[in-house]
Design a protein that fits this description.
The protein has four domains: about 5-180, no CATH class; about 205-315, no CATH class; about 335-445, 2-Layer Sandwich (Beta-Lactamase); about 450-605 and about 640-665, P-loop containing nucleotide triphosphate hydrolases (Rossmann fold, 3-Layer(aba) Sandwich), CATH 3.40.50.300. The chain is α/β, with parallel strands linked by helices. The longest helix has 15 residues, at about 320-330.
Length: about 700
């Protein structure tokens, strides 16, 4: 077989399966660069050879047959192959018609293949000198059937110096750019994403996108943290979804997990050496060194609704786990000690699902109230001296001035709870007894649910509005009606990797990864309007505006919406019509509004009847229900009125409703939505009467009659 027979007129690419250490194939002058977008898929045959691909690291070599090679010529797969071989020195040479030459450069020896007739012989150089061969050397692929033992046979004996090691490869990014042109880092890495088991599971279940997984992988390269922990920390994934993915992909790994709280008393955990790895919706995973029969009875007594699964016991993790459980038990117990009082109150609030903690001073004492499920309840009573200490401690953590008691102050700090960081907003205001303090508890898994889990009845109308290329969408509601939660859920609905998203608020309540969040500071003149004008120069796709307070901000907002930016803002109004009236009252003209308004949603919150005890507050054993704490309600849901405006004619119709009572509404009101959820069994009549009062009574009377 001659060299001329081996090289066709139009070069194709075929991979040599050599694993000789010290080999590097490089591109030389006269050889065209490889353009994966231009080269057509090839079907190599025994009559075609155009490239040799070899690596310096055996573990980085790729054994491909002809069919696999054809697939490897796909752009993404080829980039992935290069990345996998980064530990060695890999380059691909594609022969051009005008210069059909491939040079295989080694430390020793050096082999050059040229077409027959252009060179009478091939010079084989060694470290000690050179020798000539009468016939041109021809590389021929010899397959043994075992990919690991395939080699390249050369029709001449090779010198012993062939095993010399090649110099280190030092130009990975630059070499890749020279060979394939400039592509994004994501495209170059894309086909390797599914090599990660947890990532592949989450991609298949559409919990995350490929861009999100890629961002987590790059962050992992910097921080060294696990992929799942990064996704949870950046709020792309809930901890529950992470645990579920681990159970599906590698159940044995669940033993490495540890809960931060359990119903099992610490004494029993210590006596029977029990480690609770995780508590899932349907099961509980436990490791133990004790008698599994006894442990099973203990677990089933405290978790009768969970399926018990035993996992490997990690002895080194027992003492740290036990210490955390003691700390958790102390936090949940009666608050009788001043030691770490602030932390104890915060942990107790988190355990109860409270949204905020209120500190109210009196002449000789002070009280601590939790707002849980929208209802205030007294939790603790302490002395006035203790109050001064706890306020000073909270101010120090929130970086506030402890000496200023005559002015309101806002700040924030974080605490770790259940392997996640909890944001705590601190606000102090002066009153006749000194100053009162409120701490807003921002548990990311409670305040940042998926937009589909908020309970928006006409969610499709809202999504249509916010996904338009530009315009104005409004989230409206009174104080403490979940507007910020809706804004955050909407923000996470966008592709944060592909879009520039800016949030302006006073203050920022919840950190969201990959979003530019700006907290205004009116004390230095940095107002909503100035922040918005500054951000418009940074070419955002979406602007989240925490509140429209004045006509100046309203005008800037309308200007941004008219230029193709999607602006999502909040107003303190209770209905769609009230929202339109408020904007017009702030100086927005009818003709401005009708061309940019996309959607308006007014909302409120109602408590949901507990699904475990069905509102009775009692479990089957007669004790207080674990899920609702004996209250009969567990969690809350949105009730809303929402409308999408497709064009200016529909907005004109909305504007005409302000003055013409004969124009009928095209959406159900917020009260009608609440009554609908009562009919579905989501809530009850007492809750509707508590939230809406006389406004809902005509509907309730109709129900009774």
């Amino acid at each position: 077989m001659t060299t001329e027979d081996k090289i066709p007129e139009k070069a194709s690419a075929k991979k040599s399966l050599a694993r000789r250490p010290g080999t590097k194939v490089r591109r030389q002058k006269g050889v065209e660069s490889f353009d994966p977008m231009r080269v057509e898929p090839l079907s190599p045959s025994s009559d075609e050879v155009s490239a040799i691909l070899e690596t310096t690291a055996p573990e980085a070599a790729f054994d491909l047959d002809d069919e696999a090679l054809t697939a490897a010529l796909d752009e993404a797969a080829l980039f992935a192959a290069i990345d996998e071989a980064e530990s060695g020195a890999v380059e691909i040479v594609v022969r051009s018609e005008t210069a059909p030459t491939v040079e295989c450069e080694e430390t020793a020896p050096e082999l050059v293949l040229e077409p027959a007739g252009t060179a009478p012989a091939v010079e084989l150089e060694t470290v000690g000198g050179s020798q000539s061969v009468a016939e041109p050397l021809v590389a021929d692929h010899v397959g043994t059937g075992d990919a690991s033992s395939d080699v390249v046979a050369v029709e001449a004996d090779r010198p012993a110096t062939e095993e010399a090691v090649a110099p280190a490869y030092e130009e990975k990014p630059a070499a890749r750019a020279r060979k394939f042109g400039h592509v994004s880092a994501f495209r170059a890495y894309q086909t390797r994403l599914r090599a990660h088991n947890l990532g592949r599971n989450l991609l298949d279940k559409k919990k995350i996108s490929e861009q999100t997984l890629f961002a987590a992988v790059k962050e992992q390269e910097v921080t060294g943290d696990r992929i799942g922990e990064i996704l949870v920390r950046n709020q792309y994934l809930t901890n529950q979804d992470r645990v579920q993915a681990i159970l599906e992909e590698s159940p044995s790994r669940i033993a490495q997990e540890k809960v931060s709280k359990t119903r099992i008393p610490v004494e029993l955990l210590e006596k029977h050496r029990i480690i609770v790895s995780t508590i899932h919706e349907d099961g509980i995973f436990v490791g133990t060194m004790g008698d599994e029969r006894i442990v099973r009875r203990i677990v089933e007594h405290h978790y009768p609704d969970k399926t018990l699964t035993f996992v490997p016991y990690v002895a080194s993790a027992f003492q740290p786990f036990l210490a955390n459980m003691r700390k958790s038990a102390d936090m949940d117990g009666a608050i009788t000690s001043q030691e770490n009082l602030l932390d104890r109150l915060v942990y107790k609030a988190l355990a109860m699902g409270a949204s905020d903690i209120h500190f109210l001073p009196r002449p000789k004492s002070y009280s601590v109230r939790f707002r849980a499920n929208r209802i205030m309840m007294l939790e603790y009573e302490g002395t006035a001296e203790e109050f001064n200490k706890i306020v000073a401690q909270a101010k120090n953590r929130a970086r506030l001035d402890t000496s200023k008691k005559h002015l309101p102050q806002d700040g924030s700090f974080q605490l770790e709870f259940n392997r996640k960081m909890i944001d705590l907003r601190v606000n102090t205001t002066p009153n006749i007894e000194g100053e009162s303090m409120v701490i807003r508890v921002q548990d990311p898994e409670r305040v940042n649910p998926h937009i589909q889990n908020l309970g928006i009845t006409r969610l499709d109308s809202w999504v249509k509005g916010v996904t338009r290329e530009g315009g104005l969408c409004l989230v409206c509601g009174k104080v403490n009606t979940g507007k910020t939660t809706t804004l955050n859920a909407t923000t996470r609905y966008f592709d944060r990797h592909a879009m520039k998203i800016v949030e302006i608020a006073d203050p920022i309540e919840q950190r969201i990864a990959d979003v530019s969040q700006i907290s205004i500071n009116e004390s230095i003149g940095y107002t909503f309007n100035k922040a918005l004008e500054a951000q418009l120069r940074q070419d955002p796709n979406v602007v989240i505006l925490g509140e429209v307070r004045d006509d100046e901000t309203a005008r800037t907002m309308m200007r941004a919406a008219a230029t193709g930016i999607m602006v999502i803002a909040t107003l303190h109004t209770g209905s769609i019509l009230e929202s339109v009236n408020r904007l017009i009252g702030l100086g927005v003209k009818d003709h401005e509004l009708k061309y940019v308004l996309r959607a308006v949603m007014a909302q409120n919150l109602i408590r949901k009847v507990c699904t475990s005890c069905h509102g009775t507050g009692r479990a089957s054993d007669g004790f207080a229900c674990h899920d609702c704490g004996g209250e009969g309600y567990a969690g809350s849901t949105l009730v809303s009125e929402c409308e999408y405006f497709h064009d200016h004619e529909e907005v004109d119709r909305l504007l005409s409703m302000r003055t013409d009572a004969s124009v009928a509404r095209s959406w159900p009101t917020i009260v009608e939505d609440a009554v609908g959820k009562y009919r579905q069994g989501v809530t009850d009549l007492l809750e509707l009467d508590r939230v809406f009062g006389a406004e809902v009574r005509p509907y309730l009377e109709a129900e009774v009659s």
